[in-house]
Amino acid sequence: xxxxxxxxxxGVVGAGVMGRGxxxxxxxxxxxxxxxxxxxxALEAASQEIAxxxxxxxxxxxxxxxxxxxxxxxxxxxxxxxxxTSLDGFGAADFVVENAVEKTEIKEPIxxxxxxxxxxxxxxxxxxxxxxxTRIGSWTGRPESVLGMHFMNPVPLKDxxxxxxGYHTTDQTIETGLAFLAQMGKEGIVVNDLPGFVxxxxxxxxVNEAIYxxxxxxxSPEDVDRLFVKCFGHAMGPLATADLIGLDTILYSVExxxxxxxxxxxxxxxxxxxxxxxxxxxxxxxxxxxTYGVA
Length: 295
Prior knowledge:
By secondary structure, the protein is of the alpha/beta class. Helices cover 43% and strands 13% of the residues. It has an eight-stranded mixed sheet with strand order 3-2-1-4-5-6-7-8.
Protein backbone atom coordinates (compact mmCIF):
# COMPACT_ATOMS: atom_id res chain seq x y z
CA UNK A 1 0.00 0.00 0.00
CA UNK A 2 2.87 2.33 -0.61
CA UNK A 3 2.31 5.83 -1.88
CA UNK A 4 2.72 6.67 -5.53
CA UNK A 5 5.30 9.49 -5.80
CA UNK A 6 2.94 11.25 -8.20
CA UNK A 7 0.28 11.68 -5.49
CA UNK A 8 2.18 12.48 -2.32
CA UNK A 9 0.86 15.98 -1.58
CA UNK A 10 -2.91 16.26 -1.52
CA GLY A 11 -4.92 19.47 -1.49
CA VAL A 12 -8.17 19.27 0.50
CA VAL A 13 -10.61 22.18 0.16
CA GLY A 14 -12.95 22.62 3.11
CA ALA A 15 -12.35 21.71 6.75
CA GLY A 16 -15.88 20.66 7.63
CA VAL A 17 -16.90 17.16 8.60
CA MET A 18 -15.79 15.55 5.33
CA GLY A 19 -12.63 17.61 4.86
CA ARG A 20 -11.46 16.79 8.37
CA GLY A 21 -12.08 13.10 7.84
CA UNK A 22 -10.21 13.16 4.53
CA UNK A 23 -7.25 15.03 6.00
CA UNK A 24 -7.08 12.53 8.86
CA UNK A 25 -7.30 9.51 6.55
CA UNK A 26 -4.65 10.95 4.23
CA UNK A 27 -2.26 11.83 7.06
CA UNK A 28 -2.66 8.35 8.54
CA UNK A 29 -1.82 6.78 5.18
CA UNK A 30 1.41 8.72 4.73
CA UNK A 31 0.36 11.72 2.64
CA UNK A 32 1.23 15.37 3.04
CA UNK A 33 -1.99 17.37 3.23
CA UNK A 34 -2.86 20.99 2.46
CA UNK A 35 -6.15 21.56 4.34
CA UNK A 36 -7.79 24.83 3.32
CA UNK A 37 -10.80 26.63 4.70
CA UNK A 38 -11.82 30.30 4.70
CA UNK A 39 -12.44 30.06 8.45
CA UNK A 40 -9.47 29.98 10.83
CA UNK A 41 -11.88 28.76 13.51
CA ALA A 42 -12.87 25.80 11.36
CA LEU A 43 -9.21 24.93 10.85
CA GLU A 44 -8.50 25.07 14.59
CA ALA A 45 -11.52 22.88 15.31
CA ALA A 46 -10.36 20.49 12.58
CA SER A 47 -6.91 20.23 14.14
CA GLN A 48 -8.35 19.36 17.53
CA GLU A 49 -10.83 16.84 16.14
CA ILE A 50 -8.25 15.13 13.94
CA ALA A 51 -5.90 14.71 16.92
CA UNK A 52 -8.74 13.29 19.02
CA UNK A 53 -9.90 10.92 16.28
CA UNK A 54 -6.40 9.62 15.54
CA UNK A 55 -6.01 8.74 19.22
CA UNK A 56 -9.40 7.03 19.19
CA UNK A 57 -8.71 5.16 15.95
CA UNK A 58 -6.11 3.03 17.69
CA UNK A 59 -8.94 1.32 19.57
CA UNK A 60 -10.85 0.34 16.42
CA UNK A 61 -8.55 -2.47 15.34
CA UNK A 62 -9.15 -3.65 11.79
CA UNK A 63 -12.63 -2.14 11.42
CA UNK A 64 -11.40 0.81 9.37
CA UNK A 65 -10.02 1.71 5.94
CA UNK A 66 -6.65 2.12 7.69
CA UNK A 67 -6.07 -1.58 8.29
CA UNK A 68 -2.68 -2.55 6.88
CA UNK A 69 -1.16 0.92 7.27
CA UNK A 70 1.38 1.68 10.03
CA UNK A 71 -0.20 3.33 13.06
CA UNK A 72 0.77 6.96 13.60
CA UNK A 73 0.47 9.19 16.64
CA UNK A 74 -1.74 12.26 16.73
CA UNK A 75 1.33 14.49 16.67
CA UNK A 76 2.75 12.67 13.65
CA UNK A 77 -0.57 12.92 11.80
CA UNK A 78 -0.86 16.65 12.51
CA UNK A 79 2.75 17.21 11.38
CA UNK A 80 1.69 16.01 7.92
CA UNK A 81 -1.15 18.54 7.62
CA UNK A 82 -0.68 22.20 6.72
CA UNK A 83 -3.71 24.23 7.83
CA UNK A 84 -4.28 27.28 5.65
CA THR A 85 -6.91 29.86 4.76
CA SER A 86 -5.45 30.31 1.25
CA LEU A 87 -5.50 28.22 -1.90
CA ASP A 88 -2.22 29.76 -3.09
CA GLY A 89 -0.14 26.80 -1.89
CA PHE A 90 -2.13 24.31 -3.94
CA GLY A 91 0.38 24.69 -6.74
CA ALA A 92 2.28 21.97 -4.86
CA ALA A 93 -0.67 19.58 -4.84
CA ASP A 94 -0.53 16.35 -6.85
CA PHE A 95 -4.27 15.69 -6.44
CA VAL A 96 -7.10 17.88 -5.12
CA VAL A 97 -10.33 16.96 -3.33
CA GLU A 98 -12.98 19.68 -2.98
CA ASN A 99 -15.50 19.46 -0.12
CA ALA A 100 -17.27 22.82 -0.15
CA VAL A 101 -20.94 23.12 0.73
CA GLU A 102 -23.40 21.83 -1.91
CA LYS A 103 -24.09 25.23 -3.43
CA THR A 104 -22.86 25.96 -6.94
CA GLU A 105 -22.35 29.66 -6.22
CA ILE A 106 -19.78 28.63 -3.61
CA LYS A 107 -18.15 25.81 -5.56
CA GLU A 108 -17.69 27.57 -8.91
CA PRO A 109 -15.20 30.27 -7.78
CA ILE A 110 -13.14 27.61 -6.00
CA UNK A 111 -12.69 25.59 -9.19
CA UNK A 112 -11.85 28.63 -11.27
CA UNK A 113 -9.17 29.56 -8.75
CA UNK A 114 -7.82 26.00 -8.50
CA UNK A 115 -7.61 25.85 -12.29
CA UNK A 116 -5.33 28.89 -12.23
CA UNK A 117 -3.11 27.62 -9.42
CA UNK A 118 -2.71 23.88 -9.97
CA UNK A 119 -0.36 22.28 -12.46
CA UNK A 120 -1.80 21.04 -15.76
CA UNK A 121 -2.98 17.46 -15.48
CA UNK A 122 -3.61 17.56 -11.73
CA UNK A 123 -6.92 15.79 -11.11
CA UNK A 124 -9.74 17.58 -9.31
CA UNK A 125 -12.07 15.29 -7.35
CA UNK A 126 -15.39 16.80 -6.32
CA UNK A 127 -16.56 15.26 -3.06
CA UNK A 128 -20.15 16.06 -3.88
CA UNK A 129 -23.28 14.05 -3.27
CA UNK A 130 -25.49 15.68 -5.89
CA UNK A 131 -23.88 18.38 -8.09
CA UNK A 132 -23.24 17.38 -11.71
CA UNK A 133 -19.59 16.52 -12.36
CA THR A 134 -19.97 17.61 -15.98
CA ARG A 135 -21.11 21.02 -14.77
CA ILE A 136 -18.20 21.27 -12.35
CA GLY A 137 -15.78 20.37 -15.14
CA SER A 138 -17.16 23.24 -17.23
CA TRP A 139 -15.85 25.70 -14.64
CA THR A 140 -12.28 24.64 -15.47
CA GLY A 141 -10.01 24.43 -18.47
CA ARG A 142 -9.43 20.74 -17.68
CA PRO A 143 -12.84 19.00 -17.70
CA GLU A 144 -11.13 15.77 -18.76
CA SER A 145 -9.29 15.81 -15.40
CA VAL A 146 -12.38 16.33 -13.22
CA LEU A 147 -14.26 13.47 -11.58
CA GLY A 148 -16.61 12.96 -8.68
CA MET A 149 -15.47 11.21 -5.54
CA HIS A 150 -18.34 10.78 -3.11
CA PHE A 151 -16.78 9.79 0.21
CA MET A 152 -18.90 8.37 3.00
CA ASN A 153 -18.83 9.62 6.57
CA PRO A 154 -16.83 9.01 8.71
CA VAL A 155 -14.16 8.86 6.01
CA PRO A 156 -11.46 6.85 7.86
CA LEU A 157 -13.96 4.11 8.72
CA LYS A 158 -15.36 3.59 5.22
CA ASP A 159 -13.42 1.49 2.71
CA UNK A 160 -15.49 2.29 -0.42
CA UNK A 161 -16.31 5.49 -2.29
CA UNK A 162 -18.56 6.32 -5.23
CA UNK A 163 -16.51 7.56 -8.22
CA UNK A 164 -18.37 9.57 -10.85
CA UNK A 165 -17.39 9.93 -14.49
CA GLY A 166 -18.36 13.28 -16.03
CA TYR A 167 -19.04 13.68 -19.75
CA HIS A 168 -15.42 14.67 -20.49
CA THR A 169 -13.69 12.60 -17.77
CA THR A 170 -11.04 10.37 -19.37
CA ASP A 171 -10.21 6.77 -18.55
CA GLN A 172 -6.81 7.96 -17.35
CA THR A 173 -8.47 10.31 -14.86
CA ILE A 174 -10.65 7.48 -13.57
CA GLU A 175 -7.57 5.26 -13.19
CA THR A 176 -5.77 8.05 -11.32
CA GLY A 177 -8.75 8.47 -9.02
CA LEU A 178 -8.93 4.75 -8.27
CA ALA A 179 -5.17 4.68 -7.59
CA PHE A 180 -5.60 7.63 -5.23
CA LEU A 181 -8.33 5.80 -3.33
CA ALA A 182 -6.15 2.69 -3.10
CA GLN A 183 -3.47 4.83 -1.45
CA MET A 184 -6.08 5.71 1.20
CA GLY A 185 -7.05 2.08 1.76
CA LYS A 186 -10.26 2.34 -0.24
CA GLU A 187 -11.83 1.00 -3.41
CA GLY A 188 -14.02 2.94 -5.80
CA ILE A 189 -17.24 2.00 -7.56
CA VAL A 190 -17.46 3.91 -10.86
CA VAL A 191 -20.85 5.28 -11.93
CA ASN A 192 -22.00 7.80 -14.53
CA ASP A 193 -22.92 11.43 -14.04
CA LEU A 194 -26.45 12.50 -13.29
CA PRO A 195 -27.19 14.59 -10.19
CA GLY A 196 -27.32 12.43 -7.08
CA PHE A 197 -25.52 9.58 -8.89
CA VAL A 198 -26.56 6.24 -7.33
CA UNK A 199 -26.25 6.59 -3.57
CA UNK A 200 -27.91 9.96 -3.08
CA UNK A 201 -30.71 9.56 -5.58
CA UNK A 202 -31.84 6.72 -3.34
CA UNK A 203 -30.65 7.95 0.08
CA UNK A 204 -31.99 11.51 -0.12
CA UNK A 205 -35.42 10.28 -1.17
CA UNK A 206 -35.40 7.86 1.77
CA VAL A 207 -34.27 10.47 4.30
CA ASN A 208 -36.66 13.13 2.99
CA GLU A 209 -39.60 10.72 3.11
CA ALA A 210 -38.63 9.61 6.62
CA ILE A 211 -38.79 13.26 7.69
CA TYR A 212 -42.27 13.50 6.17
CA UNK A 213 -43.26 10.51 8.34
CA UNK A 214 -42.23 12.44 11.45
CA UNK A 215 -43.88 15.66 10.23
CA UNK A 216 -47.14 13.83 9.47
CA UNK A 217 -47.19 12.11 12.86
CA UNK A 218 -46.95 8.60 11.43
CA UNK A 219 -44.14 7.64 13.80
CA SER A 220 -41.54 9.12 16.13
CA PRO A 221 -37.94 9.45 14.93
CA GLU A 222 -36.99 6.61 17.28
CA ASP A 223 -39.58 4.26 15.81
CA VAL A 224 -38.84 5.18 12.19
CA ASP A 225 -35.20 4.30 12.72
CA ARG A 226 -35.94 1.19 14.79
CA LEU A 227 -37.94 -0.26 11.91
CA PHE A 228 -35.00 0.14 9.51
CA VAL A 229 -32.48 -1.26 11.99
CA LYS A 230 -34.59 -4.14 13.31
CA CYS A 231 -36.48 -5.13 10.16
CA PHE A 232 -33.92 -4.48 7.43
CA GLY A 233 -30.65 -4.88 9.31
CA HIS A 234 -29.40 -1.36 8.59
CA ALA A 235 -26.55 -0.19 10.81
CA MET A 236 -28.51 2.99 11.53
CA GLY A 237 -31.86 4.40 10.50
CA PRO A 238 -32.42 7.17 7.95
CA LEU A 239 -32.91 9.90 10.57
CA ALA A 240 -29.76 9.04 12.51
CA THR A 241 -28.00 8.98 9.14
CA ALA A 242 -29.37 12.45 8.39
CA ASP A 243 -28.09 13.71 11.75
CA LEU A 244 -24.66 12.24 10.99
CA ILE A 245 -24.48 13.84 7.53
CA GLY A 246 -25.90 17.16 8.75
CA LEU A 247 -29.46 18.33 8.11
CA ASP A 248 -28.19 21.41 6.28
CA THR A 249 -26.27 19.17 3.88
CA ILE A 250 -29.35 17.00 3.45
CA LEU A 251 -31.43 20.08 2.59
CA TYR A 252 -28.86 21.41 0.11
CA SER A 253 -28.67 18.01 -1.57
CA VAL A 254 -32.44 17.59 -1.87
CA GLU A 255 -32.71 21.13 -3.26
CA UNK A 256 -30.07 20.34 -5.90
CA UNK A 257 -31.98 17.20 -6.92
CA UNK A 258 -35.27 19.13 -7.04
CA UNK A 259 -33.70 21.83 -9.22
CA UNK A 260 -31.87 19.34 -11.44
CA UNK A 261 -34.78 17.04 -12.25
CA UNK A 262 -37.75 19.39 -11.79
CA UNK A 263 -39.49 16.39 -10.23
CA UNK A 264 -41.83 16.85 -7.27
CA UNK A 265 -40.61 13.64 -5.66
CA UNK A 266 -37.51 15.59 -4.56
CA UNK A 267 -39.48 18.42 -2.88
CA UNK A 268 -37.79 19.17 0.48
CA UNK A 269 -39.93 18.38 3.51
CA UNK A 270 -41.05 21.59 5.29
CA UNK A 271 -39.97 20.10 8.64
CA UNK A 272 -36.44 19.68 7.26
CA UNK A 273 -36.35 23.36 6.26
CA UNK A 274 -37.70 24.39 9.66
CA UNK A 275 -35.08 22.39 11.55
CA UNK A 276 -32.25 23.85 9.48
CA UNK A 277 -33.59 27.37 10.07
CA UNK A 278 -33.67 26.59 13.80
CA UNK A 279 -30.03 25.45 13.76
CA UNK A 280 -30.92 21.84 14.54
CA UNK A 281 -28.34 20.35 12.19
CA UNK A 282 -27.69 16.98 13.82
CA UNK A 283 -24.52 15.74 15.46
CA UNK A 284 -22.44 18.80 14.60
CA UNK A 285 -24.85 21.14 16.43
CA UNK A 286 -25.69 18.71 19.24
CA UNK A 287 -29.32 18.26 18.26
CA UNK A 288 -31.27 17.11 15.23
CA UNK A 289 -33.80 14.31 15.26
CA UNK A 290 -31.83 13.04 18.25
CA THR A 291 -29.73 14.76 20.94
CA TYR A 292 -25.93 14.46 21.11
CA GLY A 293 -23.16 15.69 23.32
CA VAL A 294 -20.94 18.24 21.57
CA ALA A 295 -17.24 17.82 22.36
